[in-house]
Amino acid sequence: MKRTVKCFGVIMMLAVLVSISFLLDQRYQIFNVVFSEQNFSPREKLASKIPTAVMLWESNGIVKASALKRWKPVTLTQGENPRWSPDGQQFVFTMNNDVWLMRIDLAPPVKIIENVVTEYGTGAYWSETGDGIVAIKRQNPQQVIKLKLASGKLSLIHDEGQPPYRGYPLSQGADLRFQGRYLLTFTIGEGHRSMIVDLTGKKYITNKLMLAGDCGPAWSPDGRFIIATRRGRYMTARPLYKSDFDGATGQLSPSEYFIGLGRCGNAAVSNDSAYVVYASAGNIYCWNVEQTVKEPCHGVQLTFDGHNDGPSLFIYPGKIPSVFR
């Protein structure tokens, strides 16, 4: 009898231990699921892939910035159309049709160019090496100018009013690539069109869809591809299309769907040419250039309040500057 009771006690103890083990295992699994990557937000998942990324953007006339990994928007200055420098140590923005320069130590910004085209996110663009700023003159939008930062000297680098060019009024682009030979720009003339101007060969380079109405073009820093908003005559949606460019031959590939739903615009390519950020319906999205989609969709949503535009993404090779941590 005592042996039976003892055996029963052992069995009960084992049962209790198994139950406790089961409950602990269940709690561990629940904990693991709740805190697993599967339950991170898409923005958090993206941040884990590019933990040193910092985004600039404009929200209701205020330039803001935030690291993607620790999302905490910081107000930097009044202004619009912010763009990172190639080294990520400063940025340009526009205010009242003037171009301003601000360092990431947040010293007061300095006005560097007056009276430029700023409509539709145009503003100012960095030269490839970061030694100069390129913009379109507001009083004569056929002319593109460049400011050398070291000397403060302004020079005219392109004049649409001179033969053999066709005198287009320019907007939404003043992006130089390949040692300043090629200029990516956009015109509202002849029904809107994006185009590359070969400043050496004095000719236009474009493709069928860019001629048909693509607008807001953005060039990758390495010059390999162009992103533009598809603006067809009968299209209500304006997604982003991508085309490849060969700087050695001057060849441009046909444009193909890249990403985006609805009315997209003001796209920009990250400094490492790996990601594209863009705005749609007042929010900002990000997408990896190497990813393809089977059907139209948005990239990873970064902002959610519906008042954002003009994104610019910089991925630092090392630590994020302390002001954005």
Describe this structure in words.
The protein is mostly beta strands and 325 residues long. The protein has two domains: 1-39; 41-324, Neuraminidase. The protein is 14% helix and 41% strand. It has three helices and 25 strands. The strands form six sheets. Strands 16, 17, 18, 19 and 20 form a five-stranded antiparallel beta sheet that branches. It has a four-stranded antiparallel beta sheet with strand order 3-2-1-25, with no helix packed on it. The longest helix has 33 residues, at 2-34.
Number of helices: 3
Order of helices and strands: HHEEEEEEEEEEEEEEEHEEEEEEEEEE
Number of domains: 2
Structural category: mainly beta
Care to count the β-strands? 25
Largest beta-sheet details: 5 strands, antiparallel
User: What is the CATH superfamily of the largest domain?
Assistant: TolB, C-terminal domain
Main CATH class of the largest domain = Mainly Beta
Quaternary structure of the protein: single chain
Return the CATH topology of the largest domain.
Neuraminidase
Extract low-pLDDT stretches.
Answer: 14-38
